[in-house]
Amino acid sequence: MSFVSHPSCLCSAGNTVYLGLGLVAPSEGIRWIKAGTSIGAFCLGSFVFARFHRYFSPRKRWVLIASYSFQLLMIVIAALIVTLGEEAKEGLGYQVLIPIAVVAFQSSGQAVTSRALQYAGLTSVVLTSNYCDLFSDPNLFKLSNVERNRRIAAPVLLLLGALLGGIWAHTSVGLAGALWTAVALKAAAVVAWVFWRAEEELE
Questions:
Q1: What is the mean pLDDT of the chain?
Q2: Which of the listed CATH numbers 3.10.20, 1.20.1250, 1.10.1200, 1.20.950 matches domain 3-202?
């Protein structure tokens, strides 16, 4: 299972296309099953994370720490399965579907958090609207434009992450190494929330 063909690493629009094509000819491949698994897990994750944040107040420190800690746990599970599990003989089994599902599930938490913090433009899940907002910005060429800078950073950093992940997946490090790197980065995010300076009105 290569990193670049991992459906949870694609946008939901791409997965929907794979799902639709697969439903037309389901016997011709299994990628549509992976895509469907990713979409379903992402939708379920959005449902769960949104209600968790909404119920406990979305911008409280402990809520953000708990949310990201759970996301971290999901990536650890995926990394352990990929590291310790045997490769599925038919290319489709728990060794494939569970990592896809848990990575997609936790990624929805990032999207929910970006909206809870009112930074919807930072989501790395759907970039189409980001590109539209970026190039339709009347202040696109203005020297000081925070929103433009964020909209540029989102796809650039996502592309950089995909490139690094793809490179790692094609080396001896493999997909497991890429996932463990994601674990380290997510853990760093958890620590960052612990020490992030609070806004007085939110404490």
A1: 82
A2: 1.20.1250
